[in-house]
Amino acid sequence: MHEQPPEPMEEYFPLSQVLAFTMNEFQRSWHGLEDLIAFLYGEDWDEHDDVLVWKVCRLALLDQHPDLEFEDVSELYFIDKEDWLYSVMEEWGAEAPVEPLTPSERQRLQALVKRTP
User: H helices within 1-102, ranges in order?
Assistant: First the structure.
């Protein structure tokens, strides 16, 4: 009898944190996003790889939540960003489930990120 691999554990994170990635709002300061990054990407990343880590997390979250890919609303000056966020939260909820990357998924996304400009 073959044992099934364990299911990836899932945790819920604030929707605003997930949207920071899916809207592609690269943050110079990751304050408040550290737990999400550590859970999704893993703890073993170097701060010199911050752009790579950001892009991998973005792709992973878009794979998990393709319906949360939005244009960067910060450039749409006619929209109040806070009001927009509340409207999205009304539709999707205050939190979003996130599954951590497996080592093979992380490696695949890293290779993809390195190939694209």
Answer: 15-22, 34-40, 50-64, 81-92
